[in-house]
Amino acid sequence: MAAWLALGLGAILGATTALGHAEWGSAVGLGLVLTAVPSLPLTWRPALSTMVIRGCAVLIGALVAMLTTGHPAVLAVATVATAVCGAALARVGPTAGLAVVLIAVDLPATSVGYDPGRVAATLAPYAIGVLVVLIAWGGWFGCAAALRRARGESPVAETAATAWREPWPHVLRVGVAVAAAVALAGLLPEDLVGGHWLVTSVILTVQPTAGGTGMRLAQRLSGNTVGALIAAVLLGAHPSIPVVAALTVVLFTLAMALRPVNYTWWAVTGPPVLLVISEYPELFPWYEGGVRLAMNLAGAAIVLVVVFGVPALTRIASRSGRGDFTEHDQSDSVYKIQSGRSQ
């Protein structure tokens, strides 16, 4: 499946370049990546449901990004709101929040307003990206089913459906952490390219459990360090567009194939793919991978404070309060005993 999705991404980059509109590759590619990641089920019912839900989340996120372009305060509120909605709805997940952040950066600085024609034209590339995912998954599924029949193997059993809702403490943590990240990103210099990676890092790091969040922190920080080096080499070499497209396909294949094995592999190979797609056909400066890593470190600090620091301080304060009361009560009891003996 990873190869089919990567070929779909390669076809997008190649076709848009051949048509003389390579800049479309960024929007269509983002639609594909946001729909395909983190992974897709192997059986058709849950896969179709997942792709439709994520596709709708991508298009809604794109619409929100369009309507809030040129209004930073409104965009900030919308980013937090969509991240919270995604955290509450497990089958949506981080897709909605990521779509708003990444598409807001991808869109031109001028607002499209409320003209239905311009809105539809702006949404179309992202919808095409979603459609390519459906086609690529369908091609893989058809070939895999034919191969199983030829080998006499039984069909893959369907897995249990994912629950719709996440527990409210997770939703609260996501809301607080993303709000802090958005506020901090708003304080960064306006000429800093890549400040949005601070928000995406927080959205992707906070998990439903503290243990899962700690594991994701370690995986992202270690993987993104290596990914920043790969991105620096790729961006610093200034390869031609065909070479960029080919390398992106290879890296995306590795990212999608190895992510189910360990998220660290996605953290290694995913950043160069996102950096290329976000600016395609142009390239970020070579140090942009380092900027992204710095934003991930800042995001990790926010997650540590919200998920681990605040609960730890709350527990310490609670225990201290109980301890002071117990100590006072015990000392008073000892005083009474000693007074009774002296009498």
Automatic annotation (TrEMBL):
Membrane-spanning ranges: 74-103, 123-147, 168-188, 194-214, 226-258, 293-313
Membrane topology: Multi-pass membrane protein
Pfam families: FUSC_2
InterPro entries documented for this protein: Memb_transporter_dom (IPR049453)
Keyword tags: Membrane, Transmembrane, Transmembrane helix
Protein location: Membrane
Ranges where the Integral membrane bound transporter domain occurs: 193-306
One cellular component (GO) term of this entry: membrane
Chief location of this protein within or outside the cell: membrane
Protein name as annotated: Integral membrane bound transporter domain-containing protein
